[in-house]
Amino acid sequence: MADRRPVRVLPETVANQIAAGEVVERPASVVKELVENALDAGATRVDVVVEGGGAKLVEVADNGSGMDREDALAALERQATSKISTSEDITHIGTFGFRGEAIPSIASVSRFSIVTRIEGADAATSIQVIGGTRDWVGEAGRPIGTTVTVRDLFFNVPARRKFLRAPTTELTRIRQTLSAIALANPAVAFRLRADGRDLFRLPEGDTVADRVRSILGEAVTDALLPIGHEQGDIAVSGFISKPDFVRGGSPEQYCFVNRRPATAVQVQVAVRDAWPVRDHRPVVVLFVDLPPEEVDVNVHPAKREVRFRRGDLVSAAIRVALAKALGATLPEPTPLGAPTPTLSPIGPLPTPQAPKPRQANLPLEGVTRGPYPSVAPTPPPPTTEGLPKDTPLRPPKLADYPILRDPPPSVAPIQPPPPPPPETGPATVLPWKWLRVADVLEQGYWLVVTDQGYVVVDAKAALERLFYDRFSPAAGATLASQPLLIPETLHLPAADAERVARFLPELGACGFGVSALGQDAFLIDALPVAFAELPPKEILADIAVELDQPGLRKGLDAWRREVVARAAAQAAARAFRVTSTQAAEPLLAELARSVMPYATPRGRPTMILTTYRELDRRFRRT
Q: How does pLDDT run across 399-428, given as a tens digit for each residue?
């Protein structure tokens, strides 16, 4: 029988540390809570300074209204807040903070100090707390506003501290957190300084479009479409990327409910349903504004999630807003409080306007795309008949095969290097005696029959593997570079620009001609041949985002492999779709000669085999 333990009221320090486990997950949580307090105090300028990824230092200074001594001392008590006073106020939350847990929770797991001054006060109030215990209260000099300093986060909770990630990872989380808050508050000036260098400075009085450009960068912003729709008391606004814009890595997706960085299941489902492309996700900056009583912001300790009272109407409004932005058509929704409208499927996207002409790096020989092309006949083999003697035989080009559907005019078609002639390729490494493409499915799969069973091939993954093999240089070789006919200038967000500046030598070794112009601007005058037909700005912007990933810091050879893998993924995403078994056959033969036909360079499978023995077992023939 277990020993009986009496029920005790926990000491205040222990209770605060338990609350800190819900509110303060990592340094980014500290930044979020303190910056939101600054905004609730009416600040128009917020400066954030961090060291060691925030584990050593987080300091947030603002020019808000500040506090007097009595309020500053009360703010260190649990459930002390100026945002609400009755239970009815919880249903009409119009501020960021209201729980009254952030300050005491942070102070209980750090060396904490606050200096704050209100208008008319002779001096600022200064309070120091160490591990939840008040250490000193006095006066200090400071302009109107508040400065909160958090040092040695989790110093007294080593079990929590050891779960923190590397400083670079924690700094990335802080930058993402502050970027989201800055997007929702474009009129406020923000500065983030990390380990002695500025990651970004955002001026006061920006528009939403200005702030989006500063946070997401020029390449992404140029590919965004505006969102604007009102349905009764629900207003949906923001930006979404064009369907033909492919963003490397995980594309940025920001959602704000009443200007609060938060999301809900209905929002995620609505964005997924409205997006017309299966192969990649969109870049989204989405603002959903509705009456406070229609949304519950008190369902998550860190206030990351919200709950809608009428989620079906919010979801319908978002779908209509995104459909309108993307050019699709949906029936007009009913106003708030009416029955949920029946939504028809989103129609096909209209043909976008042709882009401004750009000098191509390689001739495309008149290749065009359209949404529903007919299958082109297989071209005859090249011949030298009728040509002068000794005329070289032109190797086959990708445009010779009917493997691509015509692209919309706004997307530059891909012209990758030609595949190696069959006689020069290595022998097939596949274990089957024979294989034949039985059908090409509309969903982007090839059905292949072999002597051992049938194989389903993911066409996009297969093309990614083929492009990677074609683009890959010999071991130890430098990636070939191709100059641009017209160099392009790219403006990057400060954090991305700082990383690109540090990695300029590696970029040069990988075939990129990139030079710094100052003010976070770079001149691009050459690209690796593998990227020859891809948009230079988009490519460099994508790589800038991923420069902090471990795979790009393992040496120059890993760099080259990653650059080639990215080029293959970009080319496969923009490539034509195979529309006939005749077109798929030569590609399948080339895939069979690959040194690794079963997976893409990043480990995604290209094919799945179902053996006849497995079919017999499933049909109970044996």
A: 333 333 333 333 344 344 444 444 333 445
CA dihedral 399, 402, 407, 411 (to 10 degrees): -30
SS3 554: coil
Q: Which of 255, 251, 171, 169 is nearest to 538 (CA)?
A: 251
Both tokens of 266, joined, read 């209905």
DSSP H/E element including 257: strand 253-257
- Which residue carries 């995403």 as its tokens? 573
Rama region for 36: left / alpha / beta (φ>0; ψ in -120 to 50; rest)? alpha
Candidates 221, 350, 189, 349; CA nearest to 285 is 221
Cα 446-449-454 angle, rounded to 5 deg:
85
Question: At 17, is the secondary structure helix, strand, or coil?
Answer: helix
SS (H, E, C) 506-537: HHHHCCCEEEEEECCEEEEEEEEHHHCCCCHH
From CA 46, how far away is CA 188, in angstroms rounded? 7
Give Dmax over CA atoms of the chain in angstroms.
102
Question: What is d(CA 419, CA 93) in angstroms, rounded to the nearest whole number?
Answer: 61
Q: Are 293 and 91 in contact (CB under 8 A)?
A: yes
The whole model's pTM is what? 0.66
Half-sphere exposure of 147 (CA within 13 A, CB side): 15
Rg (CA), the chain: 29
Contact assessment for residue 422 and residue 380, using Cβ atoms and an 8 Å cutoff: no
Please name which of 287, 219, 272, 206 lies closest in space to residue 247, comparing C-alpha atoms: 219
> Which tokens belong to 218?
């020029």
pLDDT higher than 90, residue 568? no
Tokens of 92: 């009409």
Q: Which domains does the chain have, with CATH numbers?
A: 12-204 (3.30.565.10), 209-326 (3.30.230.10), 397-622 (3.30.1370.100)
